Predict the structure.
Amino acid sequence: MLRTALLASAALFLAASSARAAPLSLNLHQPPAERPYALDISGSYGESPTTIIIRDSLFGGLIGTAGGAVVGLALDSDHVGRDLAIGALVGLVAGAVVGVSDAQSGPHISIHADRVGLTTPF
């Protein structure tokens, strides 16, 4: 029974880890004669940081609940509900920490502007 529970939690972990798509990238270039300002917009656009944190927290909660169920059923079958709640809480917190770390290392956008070639004084 313990072996089946461990295999089920491993399968849940593998199903919860999603493949990440490569973020989109945008870089605008125009000849200097066609623009009064030199705008350099560069960076890559990916998922929202809030989406990343919520997604990782939910997956962490699911994995924690599965781990709590395995521990509760394998070690102490009298307090399964308590072990489920503890596992879910630990999973949510761990998922949120991973989500914040993942969101901070994600794509960033930078915009730089300089005036060049203006013929009217300001």
About this structure: The chain is about 55% helix and 15% strand. Strands lie at 24-25, 37-45, 109-115.
